[in-house]
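User: Hi! I'm working on a homework problem where we have to compare a predicted structure to a textbook description. Could you give me the structure for the chain below?
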Amino acid sequence: MMRQKTGRKKELSWSLVLVFLSAQAAWSADIYVSVPGGGDGSIASPMDLQAALDLARTNGSEDTLYLMAGEYDASTTGADTYEYGSVSNDGMKTTLSGSWNSTYTEQKTFEAPVTKLDGKGTSRVLSVHADAVSFDFAMEYIQLENGMITSGGGNGAGLLAYTENSGELNLTLHHISFEDNRTVIDSSNRSYGGGMYSNCFFELTEGRFKDNQAYGGGAMFIADKPGGDKSMAPIIDNTLFEGNICGNASYPGLVGSTIYYSCSPRITRSLFTAPDYTAIGFYPNSALDSGYGAGTLALENSVFSGFKSYHWGGAISLWDTSANISNCLFINNRAGYSGSGAGGAITVYDSSVLTAQNTTVTNCTFVGNRSSSAAVSGGAIHNRVQGITVINSIFWDNGSNGLYKESGTGTVSYSDIEGGVASSLMTDGGNTINTTPLFVDTAGEADNWDLRLQNGSPAIDTGDNNAPYLTTPDLDGNFRIWDGNHDSTATVDMGCYELIVKNFSWPTVLPAIIGKEK
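Assistant: Happy to help. Predicted structure tokens:
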């Protein structure tokens, strides 16, 4: 059986090919893993997972660990968690490849992972630690579930990936699922990152975070590097976030029900859906929450649906930080259940103008968002002290003053705003309208709405082609800019969807989940 190796690239001349082939075994290795293991790691005699991690950490080669399908018990590993650490680490890349059948000839790659690392509700699932050593660590087709942090100060119930003092950890996660991982929650024991805690660079693709919970960052807590490097830009792409929460009924309104970050994450093509608030009995804070003075958020082609926050910003809360948000849909989010707070979809806030920041919102659609606070407005967006620029966007059915600038600066242009610009207290940058956008379908429950544009919509071909952070594909993956009104001039539409004749789409989780197919 042939497999793609993950060995480190070396500069070779043709005269050294034979030497390279004969030496290949010295720098890359395949290690086979099963439950219960007990073997030497060969394909005929798999070993247990912790033994395989220990071997990969010290054998002086780049390793791929092939994990047979099954449930691996992280609560019986001796250290109460699977661990890949910095002690005696050879600095070589290690890859955990899961969901293999019993003969390691076929990998299940299109459904939920069938290799499951289980904390059994008593221990963290996996810890990857770099200190005074640098290495790459990768995982694919694995589920981390039922992790638990039972004491304060411990973070990352599903996965803890961290560096300290020195050393670099680069993490790659593909088709990894985090489910039902939790940390202790009380005022004196503050543990963060129910699904995952990291302070290193990572790239996450095709992930899934479901029903994770922590004091802060129910799904993820993304910290900056040691020393405060907030420019670090980890990547999250094509990932589902479902039902994650921070806090509990005794401690509501904490930070980041889904993600809390203090660096500069880049999030693309991802879907954020809220928990069942009736079932959990309280309202946590924003789905996506920046730390004070965090780096710049880059958010593209994503959806936030149904979030309800105790304080400000139902979907996103930005505090003394900048963000560039484009081609996103915000539907049926609400803020201010504590009695104060606004910005049903987004709040932009700081207590000081000394560190002025700016948020740019490009080609986004806001529908059905609300502020539950009677004191202030901003059903969709509320800005206070900082600056905000809105362009090519649609605001409809967000209550009175869906877009509102309490203080600071704000400009809106090339956008469709129910009620017009004047009541928002934003500066009208030109080419704004106040006309029903003619969505395809807004009947029944919000989850069934189709917020694409009908033929004849006033939002078609009325945007600005030179808008900042205008992305090439729309939320469906359609190429923009398109001549939607057939006047021989291709002009971008307002909102997150581009009306085109034919759908050119990349493979993505989003169209199957959001709304109806064209």
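For your comparison, note the following. The first strand starts at residue 28 and ends at 33. Confidence is low (pLDDT under 50) at residues 1-26, 502-518. Good luck with the assignment!
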